[in-house]
Design a protein that fits this description.
The protein has about 375 residues and is α+β, with helices and mostly antiparallel strands. The chain has four helices and 25 strands. The strands form six sheets. Strands 4-18-15-16-17-14-5 form a seven-stranded antiparallel beta sheet. A six-stranded antiparallel beta sheet has the order 3-19-23-22-21-20, with no helix packed on it. Strands 6-13-11-8 form a four-stranded antiparallel beta sheet, with no helix packed on it. The relative contact order is 0.17.
Amino acid sequence: MKALKNSMNWYKSARCLRGAKHCAWFSLLFLALASCREEVASDQPVPIRGIKTHLVTETDSTASRFFPSVLQPAAITALAFELPGRIDYLSLSVGQPVLEGDILARLDQASFQTQLDNALAAEAQTLAGLGNAQDTLARQTQLLATGAVTRVSVDAARTDVEALQAQLAQTQAGVAAARQDLGRTDLRAPFDGVINSVDVAQFATIGAGLPVTSLYATDTMEASFTVSFEIANQLVVGTPVSVTLADKPAVSLEGVVTELGSRAPTVSSFPVVIQLLETDPVLKAGMAVEIALTLPLHEAHGYNLPLTAVILDGGGKTNAATHQTELSVYVYDDDSGTVKRRAIVSGGVRGNDLIVVDGLNVGDRVASAGASFLRDGQQVSLLDPQP
């Protein structure tokens, strides 16, 4: 029995030894295959991304600032009758265009026509009396020469003539005033414009001087906005501006600064008023506009850089005092063939270009597209030819 047990133990040991050898063989085979795979993978070239670049060459000494605003009439004129009365004609609506001399409203003319008729009748009566008095004076003067009347009668006749002459001047002034009052019953447009408001209703009785309607001219549009202290110090009355319609960007008009506020209604917000020097048929009060101011840069010069070159990772910071913005771009390193992330400072925008006042030099090549797909130190190739 003991010999049988020893035989069994030897068989198990031999079997385990053969299993261990198989396991070791499979492990070596796996490691060999893995090393071959790594060698094959390492032999394949890593793809190099091609990039477009912008060569820093252009310089500029100005930058544009953009401010939203709303077009408003430069002046709104309130129109009223100079006389009290009942409105007999009124056909106006807000936004209605009118021409100079158009009748906007009319008072009932019946009472004013009666006053004119009475004044004309008084004038005719006075003229008749004056004619008789002048004839009497002529006769009295002839009779005085013959001695038939006294000097007192002649003087009395002359006094009657003078009194009637004064009365005639008074009645003639009354006729002119009545005729003028009749003409004032028509409220006419003093200039070409647009109706801004209608403040009364037809057939209403109003007093003298009470507003009937208001009118504004379309060729004198203005807009107001607020700027920082730094920008306000760079502006003067007469500074040119460019005004673009938000609803129709193709329309761009010239304007000029007409007013500069010296007192800020809120912290560091100084009011500025500009007036359009040009007009366009599409202009309407209340239209949204964008006002562009061209201002000198804080630095001696700036470099133009496409907006697409900026790295959009939320890292931009704006200095509220100087209105300069810190951004980042990728600059191509010719020696290593890689792109390097670099911080820049923007002093403003002109058109579709960023004006960089710090961080770039003439001759730098900046990745102008696909900045979000690059990383600092990445190997790249240039798609655009070298100059």
